[in-house]
Design a protein that fits this description.
Layout: H1 5-14, H2 25-29, E1 53-56, H3 61-73, E2 78-81, H4 92-95, E3 105-108, E4 111-114, H5 116-127, H6 138-163, H7 174-190, H8 204-218, H9 227-239, H10 243-265
Parallel strand pairs: 1-2
Antiparallel strand pairs: 1-3, 3-4
Length: about 270
């Protein structure tokens, strides 16, 4: 079920028996016979006493995944734009918050957190009305974790390997485009069994993956051959609160920038 080492270890440590771990993966997403949801529904936590700060840049896919999760749980963020191109992330006041000088960075009370997927899981766990976005059931959560790892280590990683050299005026390697398309093919296969990336409900895995895929589409890569991805994207646009505000505008921003770079470098993304 879970083949990446870290995901498998997390699954085993959370236990295969007892509590929520005793139900099947399918039971997380399917209603019981009486129509009640099978996933655990913890008592919702109160809203934060003060609005969490999010240091971000709208064009960044990882930042947009956090914005989507915040919209889904209904948490309003105090958005603080960071001009990475202008070097604001290297200023002493930001380094005091995040010595790795990366975005997104979340500050919620005494919590200082970076790495977008960790922020998404924190927001879903801390402020979610139930566990649907990041399930408590180990059999369901391990699939969400696997998709998050796939996005970080494969899909988004291959996207940056291909596209980001253009930001530095370097022509992208066509071999990296083929690797990116291979990763898209794998995502297309993941969507064979479920309506969304990790089940039949939206999870934070969808927030992260849609941020990556919408950016891939925005730079001009055609997705028509990945029919399940195309259908999944349409479902995400409908199912995710604030989708346009949280994701579309930023994707178009980076898409327009990279398309211009590709044109200057005479790059053909659909040879």
């Amino acid at each position: 079920m879970a083949w990446r080492g870290g995901v498998l270890l997390s699954y085993l440590l959370r236990g295969r028996r007892g509590g929520s771990g005793s139900s099947s993966l399918h039971s997380f997403n399917q209603p019981s016979l009486d129509g009640a949801p099978r996933s655990q529904t913890p008592t919702p936590r109160p809203p934060p006493a003060t609005m969490p700060d999010l240091y971000y840049m709208a064009a960044s896919p990882p930042c947009r995944s956090v914005l989507l999760t915040a919209k889904a749980v209904g948490v309003e963020l105090n958005l603080k734009k960071v001009d990475v191109m202008g070097g604001e992330h290297m200023k002493p006041e930001f380094l005091e918050i995040n010595f790795q000088h990366t975005i997104p960075t979340l500050v919620d009370g005494n919590i200082k957190l970076w790495e977008s997927r960790a922020i998404c899981s924190y927001l879903a766990s801390q402020y979610g009305k139930d566990d649907s976005l990041y399930p408590n059931n180990p059999r369901a959560r391990c699939i969400v974790d696997a998709r998050l790892n796939f996005d970080m280590g494969t899909l988004y990683h291959r996207f940056t390997d291909y596209a980001f050299p253009a930001m530095r005026g370097q022509k992208p390697d066509p071999a990296n485009l083929e690797k990116l398309k291979e990763a898209l093919g794998w995502l297309n296969r993941f969507l064979t069994e479920y309506t969304f990336a990790a089940g039949n409900k939206v999870t934070i895995a969808d927030h992260c993956l849609i941020s990556s895929v919408s950016t891939i589409e925005a730079i001009g890569i055609e997705l028509d051959e990945y029919t399940r991805i195309v259908k999944w994207m349409k479902r995400c646009k409908i199912a995710m609160p604030g989708y346009k505000e949280a994701n579309v505008d930023g994707a178009e921003m980076i898409g327009s920038f990279l398309k211009q770079k590709f044109e200057e470098l005479k790059v053909e993304v659909n040879p």
